[in-house]
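Fill in residues.
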């Protein structure tokens, strides 16, 4: 399990999983309904990427998003 604490870590996790599954950026963009440019920026850790679109990409890769609160 990876703990994501910033946009760079999120981008790296997405990129690593995409590569592990041997999927190109073009293929993943089509699977997740986002543009290739958005995906490139997401993988580079661009802070302004939209969370809804990022979740679509993660879902297409089968990445689960859990929210852990301080009280957990």
């Amino acid at each position: 399990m990876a703990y994501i604490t910033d946009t760079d870590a999120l981008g790296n996790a997405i990129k690593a999983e995409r590569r592990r599954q041997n999927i190109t950026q073009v293929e993943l963009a089509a699977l997740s309904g986002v543009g290739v440019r958005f995906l490139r920026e997401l993988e580079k850790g661009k802070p302004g990427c939209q969370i809804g679109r990022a979740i679509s990409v993660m879902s297409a890769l089968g990445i689960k998003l859990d929210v852990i609160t301080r009280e957990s």
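The helical segments are 7-20, 25-32, 36-43, 51-61.
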